[in-house]
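Good morning C.,

I know you're traveling, so I'll keep this short. The sequence:
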Amino acid sequence: MIKIRVFVNLTKNAFDTMPDGGTLKIRAGRVDNNNVFFSLEDTGVGMSEDALQSLWTPLFMTKPKGMGLGLPICNDS
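The C-alpha cells, ready to paste straight into the viewer:
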C-alpha cells in the first residue's frame, strides 16, 4: 500500500506544479517478475536543489497548503 501512496503523492505533486496546465509523462517497465519501475516527468516549475535535499524530511513543504507529510510517510528506507 505504501508504494501506491508514493505514486499517488508524486502524481498529485506533479499536477500541483502545473496550475495552468502542462504535461505529465508516466513510464513503467518491468525489472523482473516481482518488480516494476515507474518514472514521472512533468512540465512544472521544478524543484530547487534545497528542496530536493529535503524532499523526504517530515513537515518540509514547498506549497502554501498541506502538512509536508505526503512523501515522508511513504519512505520505507
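Safe travels,
E.
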